[in-house]
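F.,

This is the one I mentioned.
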């Protein structure tokens, strides 16, 4: 397979001005015709025109209405080359045939539940017709769709509907025109039996936009929350960024078969059903929150991605990092900012940090790829969002907004690079960003070590930073990064001290602004080693470092255990208050893991229990914050910090601490369950979600004790629940423990919900991720359950992906978990390479485990790589994992 490099980027020889597409959709085949106005980049030049195209039958090619002869062009399995096109502007007409009904890759044009739909990002358009399938080719499109009227009453594409009508033979057609230039990855078509929930939004300039969410008729009642989310997102983008929607129609279509979450096609977003459909009875608070975030995300792409797009796929984070940042801010403003930040940082730590430390580590802007689909990663998305957040931390809200305004002023309608975004931020603010660009080019999570000292005579407090960026594949040596460290200093009563000035790099910098005291400041750490000395500090402070998690780094400070407990109790920065508890928990878990490995008895530090008890009883704290604060770091996070990851030890220790906490804090947890019950109607808002979260976490702790009356309590909550959030949490609590109750409740749940495929997926995932030893056999059985289907990505992610989340069973010492996954990857690859390559990633960190597991994991990767006809997608992940 061919590797593509950023350094080899070349401007295209030809651009396209207008593209008229026509689809005749049929049961046996679909005929695609395109008419493209082509012009050369350099006037008067003539080069061969190379079009991408894969897996389709070419019927005819015309230039300026003349059929081309055999020798005028060449077709191979990947390209159509026009040998010597005419000089100047010309029209190119192509007719080809495709077979969407056989397309199980869910890329290009395919069928989902009998309806036609498309997915073109990243390189799916080349499976529809021959084209220059690259994002810097931006053109204006029309799209005519012709299909049987009774089977496909709804025909949708991008832009405005300009004509429709009936045709002979029970057929009909629709003609769509998109007035905005776009790259082909934003093209979309949907044809099917769908109905819509309609609403409208009046933009700030007074235009009325028709909003339509399309689903099969029976699902329409479940689109209320999606519509609420869309309208909230439209309003938020106007209020916060001054960005208004630019067409009179915005369509969202929900489809059950989709490789990722959703797609921002211009004015015709296509969504995985699970990110649209919700009702209190069938969706959890987490589902509701995900829908809000993703509907927002795809809508926000209209400006950050569609109006301004990427020059090439290496720049993906230009649109994705920025849009994730925007959706994070949107969700923060709609709920609790602290809790949103905590969940986002946890996600970064649990998924991105391990990627950044493994064989697939790549910079936010990768240097090369074999299959672009493999680079829709937590690094490009989530670390990319952290990079955007750092601009805001450095510039403040107003400065960041000025940068965004300049970015749109300069680049609307263009395909640009990460440097263009950087330059807009810099130029709008006259800012000095030093070596900030290395965040785009260097992989690996920087480690920042901080040591502190207080000089009681001089009343100065010094913080010394040493940073190191670990080596990653292809990048053995790194330059220091520009790390914004937001911080405050706490006095002995727990209050923030006013910060007057700091001595740094030979100069005294004033912190106070306009004679107003400042309590939180941002230090600019740019060198390998750097010292900052605060003056006028009357007593030894406790520093609260990296407030709000101001940079995506691993912080190692010399704070004492007592300092961490102090911060947990007092820090005015809620994020760091939570973080201090997590640092304590991580230290505790690691030391207990060592004890477990040495077969020492496990004893829980009473100070830890005491710290959590004070959090539980602090009435001033937000309930959802408390829930986060009493949730232990994930097993993956702890394994990631170990020299040799030991899944059994980490799982045993985490279970031990949970049980100890449950028993020590039983009274508190029991009242949390009682006090947070409610007979109210389900409401999706912060106070109600916080209440449910608190009740659910308490119930989960209690059920871990396996005491009959506590299992009974969980069973009672399961039966009494009037919404899925509480019902499913009770089921999860019960399912922790093997036995009759577990089996009966699982059977009852399926019985109740078998008609709802999204709820059944939760049921699959819960069983698959179970840590009950030997569960692989149960998962194998579930593969042949009537509700399971290897062709549906959601089901695969629930059952097979869910299984990989079990430290006990996926990493089983007898290799049964690895063998199961190896078999699944090979089977899935023949159906859907994108899904297979996501699943094979579970093997990528095989070197982190003990020798025996290494051998077993490696053997599976070798088996996969030697499989005949392996896709490029899986090949890339498997070969990089073995390298
Ligand atoms: N921009 C969208 C990316 C996407 C995608 C990429 C590869 C293969 C399938 C895909 N489906 C959607 C989603 C987003 O980030 O908004
Ligand atoms: Zn996106």
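My design for it:
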């Amino acid at each position: 397979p061919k590797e593509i490099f950023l350094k080899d980027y070349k401007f295209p020889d030809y651009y396209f001005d207008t593209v008229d597409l026509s689809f005749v959709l049929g049961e046996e085949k679909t005929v695609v015709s395109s008419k493209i106005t082509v012009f050369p980049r350099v006037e008067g030049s003539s080069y061969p025109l190379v079009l991408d195209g894969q897996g389709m039958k070419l019927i005819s090619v015309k230039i300026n209405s003349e059929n081309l002869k055999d020798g005028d062009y060449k077709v191979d399995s990947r390209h159509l080359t026009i040998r010597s096109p005419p000089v100047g502007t010309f029209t190119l007409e192509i007719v080809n045939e495709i077979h969407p009904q056989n397309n199980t890759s869910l890329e290009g044009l395919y069928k989902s539940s009998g309806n036609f739909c498309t997915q073109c990002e990243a390189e799916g358009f080349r499976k529809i017709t021959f084209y220059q399938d690259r994002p810097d080719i931006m053109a204006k499109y029309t799209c005519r769709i012709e299909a049987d009227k009774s089977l496909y009453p709804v025909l949708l594409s991008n832009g405005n509907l300009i004509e429709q009508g009936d045709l002979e033979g029970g057929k009909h057609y629709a003609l769509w025109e998109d007035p905005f230039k776009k790259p082909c990855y934003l093209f979309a078509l949907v044809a099917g039996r769908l109905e819509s929930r309609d609403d409208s939004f009046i933009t700030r300039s007074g235009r009325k936009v028709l909003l339509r969410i399309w689903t099969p008729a029976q699902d329409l009642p479940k689109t209320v929350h999606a519509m609420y989310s869309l309208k909230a997102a439209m309003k938020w983008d106007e209020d916060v960024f001054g960005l208004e929607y630019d067409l009179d129609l915005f369509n969202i279509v929900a489809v059950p078969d989709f490789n990722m979450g959703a797609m921002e096609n211009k004015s015709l977003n296509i969504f995985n059903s699970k990110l649209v459909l919700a009702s209190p009875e069938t969706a959890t608070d987490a589902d509701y929150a995900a829908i809000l975030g993703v509907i927002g995300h795809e809508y926000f792409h209209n400006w950050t991605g569609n109006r301004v797009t990427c020059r090439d796929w290496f720049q993906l984070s230009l649109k994705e990092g920025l849009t994730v940042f925007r959706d994070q801010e949107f969700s923060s403003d709609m709920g609790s900012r602290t809790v949103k930040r905590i969940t986002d940082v946890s996600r970064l730590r649990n998924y991105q940090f391990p990627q950044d430390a493994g064989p697939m580590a790549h910079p936010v802007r990768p240097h090369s790829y074999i299959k672009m689909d493999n680079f829709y990663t937590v690094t490009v998305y989530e670390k990319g969002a952290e990079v955007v957040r750092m601009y805001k931390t450095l510039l403040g809200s107003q400065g960041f907004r000025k940068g965004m305004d300049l970015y749109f002023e300069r680049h609307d309608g263009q395909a640009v690079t990460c440097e263009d975004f950087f330059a807009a931020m810099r130029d709008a603010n006259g800012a000095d960003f030093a070596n900030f660009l290395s965040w785009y080019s260097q992989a690996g999570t920087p480690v920042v070590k901080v040591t502190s000292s207080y000089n009681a005579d001089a009343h100065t407090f010094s913080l010394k930073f040493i940073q190191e960026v670990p080596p990653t594949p292809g990048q053995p040596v790194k330059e220091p990064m520009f790390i914004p460290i937001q911080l405050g200093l706490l006095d002995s009563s727990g209050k923030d001290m006013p910060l007057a000035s700091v001595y740094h790099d030979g100069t005294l910098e004033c912190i106070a602004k306009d004679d107003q005291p400042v309590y939180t400041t941002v230090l600019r750490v740019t060198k390998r080693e750097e010292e900052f000395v605060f003056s006028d500090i009357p007593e030894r402070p406790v520093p609260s470092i990296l407030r709000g998690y101001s940079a995506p780094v691993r912080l190692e400070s010399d704070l004492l255990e007592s300092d961490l407990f102090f911060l947990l109790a007092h820090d005015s920065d809620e994020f760091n208050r939570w973080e201090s508890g997590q640092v304590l928990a991580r230290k505790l878990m690691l030391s207990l893991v060592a004890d477990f490995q040495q077969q020492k008895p496990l004893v829980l530090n009473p100070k830890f229990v005491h710290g959590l008890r004070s959090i539980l009883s602090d009435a001033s704290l937000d309930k959802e914050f408390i829930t986060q604060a009493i949730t232990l770091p994930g097993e993956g996070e702890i394994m990631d910090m170990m020299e040799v990851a030991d899944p059994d030890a980490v799982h045993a220790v985490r279970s031990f601490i949970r049980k100890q906490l449950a028993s020590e804090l039983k009274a508190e947890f029991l009242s949390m369950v009682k006090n947070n019950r409610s007979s109210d109607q389900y409401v999706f808002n912060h106070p109600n979600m916080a209440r449910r979260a608190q009740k659910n976490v308490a119930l989960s702790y209690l059920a871990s004790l396996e005491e009959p009356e506590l299992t009974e309590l969980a069973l009672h909550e399961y039966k009494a629940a009037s919404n899925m959030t509480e019902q499913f949490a009770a089921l999860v609590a019960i399912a922790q423990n093997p036995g009759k109750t577990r089996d009966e409740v699982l059977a009852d749940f399926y019985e109740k919900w078998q008609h709802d495929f999204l709820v059944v997926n939760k049921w699959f995932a819960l069983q698959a991720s179970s840590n009950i030893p030997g569960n692989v056999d149960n998962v194998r059985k579930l593969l042949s359950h009537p509700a399971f289907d290897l062709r549906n990505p959601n089901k695969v992610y629930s059952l097979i992906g869910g299984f990989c989340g079990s430290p006990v069973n996926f990493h089983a010492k007898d290799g049964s978990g690895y063998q199961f996954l190896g078999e699944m990857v090979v089977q899935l690859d023949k159906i859907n390479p994108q899904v297979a390559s996501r699943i094979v990633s579970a093997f990528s960190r095989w070197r982190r485990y003990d020798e025996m597991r290494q051998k077993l994991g490696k053997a599976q990767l070798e088996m996969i790589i030697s499989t005949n006809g392996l896709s490029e997608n899986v090949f890339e992940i498997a070969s990089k994992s073995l390298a």
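Residues 297, 301, 320, 323 surround zinc ion (ligand 2) (CB under 6 Å).

Talk soon.
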